[in-house]
């Protein structure tokens, strides 16, 4: 199964990336997953360009495609001004609105203080609910002080196990709304992106181009308007 | 194959000197550009329709009527005519009138507008955008093709025994293109009627254009108008040329960097790599334009956007000289090579009148 990790950390090393990696490792302990990490920092200008041009540059297209094709997603953001970072939101603003439908998503956030810990509930969860993802019950918030504390590892472990379970159920078709079959394997992303089909919103999708448009036959369209 | 230009009609500040033309100057510039297009041997001039600043062309047939009187051969068209918010009765009348004024040198491209508020300004609901395009166009067709129309629909007051005047020239309505960037419903509509499909690809990567054009071609064949290769396809493209490509890049960069539609996003280099924009020598424009055929197939109409980004009129006229003298003659020759004999030319009024007579005789 394919697990994609989206990290919006900005510094290097980044505690956001650290949490993302820990969550991915915890998931991998409970399921057989191929992990691909998408670092939004590297895509920051491409994301901004997509906003003004309406189409993704190749590297961003590959990242959007990877997320769309994933069996599960881990999304981690630093807390900026009491919410997810603008970069994190921008990435999910340019993604095709249907590409997360039914996908298990584990959300996480990092911050300098534990006072922001509910950001996963009041900011991240509604965002992914809107995108019709299956947001896992356990979200993980890590404040600076948590990295030296006892509870964090347990929460990471529980969240990883949950994601593994949902990904397995999703791949087996037992989660309502999730796709039953495993998505087709994504070839080498550099070449894949250049030829990848795009949705009507310009986002790269993993849908074969022959099926990308569902056309309502014109007679039907016309008939529906008859008074 | 037809070659021409299309204009958005934007009033944009020239970033190199901070000067903004008045609406009057811009309108006069558009008229000069159209007449120059004929002078340098181009086939088509198309104007946009907009109802908000900074755009000036709200009344396309007024403008095209003037150009008709000042030209002999140029086909006058639109890019686009708003089929959603205009009354289809008025479109039928305006363009039939223009056909008579211009001796048939008229076609038009249907579109849905580039700004959401245009719907409420004309009392329409944007959520019905596609449905408006479908119903209004179905009525427009009947108004042109039938002398007396009794009609009832969802969006407009009913018509009882109504005759749209003047009747189309020679009993043949203007040819219609349907312009769409990303709505498969419009490609489907164009295919259903056997009309032309224009993909304004200027801000889009080739992969997307290919997908939309292929859909139209397949559905065109599905509705029995011919083979997919015989469908009537038009494409856009925007260019800036100088003899030496470095000069073109140097001169155009400030315009690109500041234009409302291009600026402050990707670099000129990224943008030219990913979209049809070509900034360079006439030879580079020729090569890029010829490459469109690789993903869109043999097509019928190529329109260039050249009066963009606040370029002064003098520069635009120079661009037209280069298009007419150096680019289009080569494109005509090269596009003709290997073009299958059964791929039709862009429909003209004369050809459509002849075809209509053939049907009557048979």
TrEMBL record, chain A:
Residues 1-147 form the NADPH-dependent FMN reductase-like domain. It holds the Pfam family FMN_red. Gene3D superfamilies: 3.40.50.360. Keywords: Flavoprotein, FMN, Oxidoreductase. The keyword Secreted does not apply. PANTHER family: FMN REDUCTASE (NADPH). This is NAD(P)H-dependent oxidoreductase.
């Amino acid at each position: 199964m394919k697990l994609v990790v989206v990290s919006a950390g900005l510094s290097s090393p980044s505690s956001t990336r650290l949490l993302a990696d820990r969550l991915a490792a915890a998931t991998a302990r409970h399921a057989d997953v191929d992990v691909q990490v998408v670092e939004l920092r590297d895509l920051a200008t491409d994301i901004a360009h997509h906003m003004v041009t309406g189409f993704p540059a190749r590297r961003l297209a590959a990242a959007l495609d990877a997320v769309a094709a994933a069996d599960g997603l881990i999304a981690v953001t630093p807390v900026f001004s009491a919410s997810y970072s603008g970069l994190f939101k921008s990435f999910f603003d340019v993604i095709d609105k249907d590409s997360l439908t039914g996908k298990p998503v584990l959300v996480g956030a990092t911050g300098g203080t534990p006072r922001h810990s509910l950001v996963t509930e009041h900011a991240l969860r509604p965002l992914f609910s809107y995108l019709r993802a299956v947001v896992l019950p356990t979200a993980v918030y890590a404040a600076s002080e948590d990295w030296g504390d006892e509870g964090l590892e347990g929460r990471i472990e529980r969240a990883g196990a949950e994601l593994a379970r949902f990904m397995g159920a999703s791949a087996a078709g037992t989660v309502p709304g999730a796709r039953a079959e495993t998505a087709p394997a994504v070839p080498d992303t550099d070449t894949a992106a250049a030829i990848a089909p795009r949705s009507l919103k310009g986002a790269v999708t993993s849908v074969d181009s022959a099926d990308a448009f569902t056309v309502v036959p014109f007679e039907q369209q016309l008939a529906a308007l008859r008074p | 194959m037809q070659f021409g230009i299309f204009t958005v009609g934007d009033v944009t500040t020239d970033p190199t000197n901070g000067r903004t033309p008045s609406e009057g100057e811009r309108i006069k510039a558009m008229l000069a550009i159209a007449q120059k297009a004929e002078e340098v041997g181009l086939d088509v001039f198309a104007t946009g329709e907009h109802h908000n600043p900074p755009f000036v062309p709200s009344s396309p047939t007024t403008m095209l009527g003037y150009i008709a009187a000042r030209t002999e051969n140029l086909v006058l068209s639109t890019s686009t005519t708003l089929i959603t918010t205009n009354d289809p009765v008025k479109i039928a009348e305006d363009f039939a009138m223009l056909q008579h004024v211009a001796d048939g040198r008229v076609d038009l491209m249907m579109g849905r507008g580039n700004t959401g508020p245009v719907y409420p300004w004309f009392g329409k609901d944007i959520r019905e955008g596609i449905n408006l395009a479908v119903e209004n166009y179905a009525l427009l067709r009947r108004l042109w093709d039938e002398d007396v129309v009794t009609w009832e629909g969802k969006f407009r007051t009913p018509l009882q025994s109504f005759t749209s005047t003047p009747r189309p020239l020679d009993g043949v309505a203007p040819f219609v293109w349907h312009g769409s960037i990303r709505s498969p419903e419009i490609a489907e509509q164009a295919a259903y009627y056997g009309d032309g499909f224009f993909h304004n690809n200027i801000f889009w990567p080739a992969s997307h254009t290919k997908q939309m054009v292929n859909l139209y071609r397949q559905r065109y064949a599905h509705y029995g108008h011919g083979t997919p290769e015989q469908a009537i396809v038009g494409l856009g493209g925007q260019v800036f040329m100088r003899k030496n490509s470095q000069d073109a890049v140097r001169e155009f960069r400030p315009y690109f960097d500041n234009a409302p539609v291009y600026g402050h996003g990707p670099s000129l280099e990224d943008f030219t790599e990913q979209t049809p924009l070509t900034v360079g020598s006439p030879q580079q424009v020729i090569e890029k334009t010829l490459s469109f055929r690789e993903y869109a197939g043999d097509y019928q109409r190529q329109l260039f956007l050249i009066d963009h980004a606040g370029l002064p009129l003098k520069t635009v006229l120079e661009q037209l000289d280069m298009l007419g003298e150096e680019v289009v003659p080569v494109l005509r020759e090269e596009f003709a090579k290997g073009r299958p004999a059964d791929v039709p030319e862009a429909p003209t009024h004369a050809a459509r009148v002849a075809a209509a007579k053939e049907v009557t005789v048979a």
